[in-house]
Amino acid sequence: MADNKVRHLGVIMDGNRRWARQHMFSSVMRGHEKGVDTFIDLCEWCENAGIPYLTVYAFSTENWKRSQEEVGDLFKLMRKFFTDEIHRCVEKGVRVVVIGNLGRLTEEDLAVIRGAEKLTEHCRTLYLQIALSYGGRDEIIRAAELYADMRARGDAESGSLTEELFGELLDTRGVPDIDLVIRTGGEQRLSNFFPWQTTYADLYFTDTLWPDFSERELQSVLSWYESVKINKGK
Fold first, then answer.
1. CA separation for the pair 162, 169 (Å, rounded)
2. Which residues constitute the domain of residue 20?
3. Dihedrals phi, psi of 182, to nearest 5 degrees
4. Which of 32, 59, 85, 186 is most solvent-facing, going by the fewest CB within 10 Å?
5. Are 217 and 38 in contact, with CB atoms under 8 Å apart?
6. Using one digit for the tens of pLDDT, what is the confidence trace for 126-155?
7. Is the pLDDT of residue 21 over 80?
8. CATH number for position 104
9. pLDDT in tens, 110-121
């Protein structure tokens, strides 16, 4: 489906913990580990489908409320991806960009992330945004603060704020808006996932838990999206 109509896909990868419980694992981390495997596969599926932009919800601002043990284990898993799997991104032409409120991350985590971004900055096949410590409302507040700073410095005049300028102050500056959002795990809400960038996105909710999501299901969703656009005359 290299001629699909989706330019930018957003994915809310939900259901890792429930998957682990359903499979009777003693630790929910087994679900997160399987979820990372599916995420890595997703990048390849997007390339196969001709999707140039992918944004995934890896860790929300609300996820900081989970137990310290689970949060710590999640960041260990993330560090493993950014160190052990980043070579696969380079080989596949995946450019990795991490966005969100990264002020709560350790210097070690930031160094690992920046290293991964540097290694892949020349890649052009897939532009991958990983939303880490991200919340849509938080992003908008941070953008508003940036604009207030511009006004205070005299770099912007009263009445100069436009949608285009505000978009340049968001984490996703320079990246097209999201066309299609897929959320796995059965919930039917966006949960603070890029409210500005999904204003005109089509939404697809599936009961499939994230670790069980497959390329076949992605192809089915893309076919659904194409039919929606055809029916709308787009």
1. 11
2. 8-136+175-224
3. -110, 125
4. 186
5. no
6. 999 999 999 999 999 999 999 999 999 999
7. yes
8. 3.40.1180.10
9. 999 999 999 999
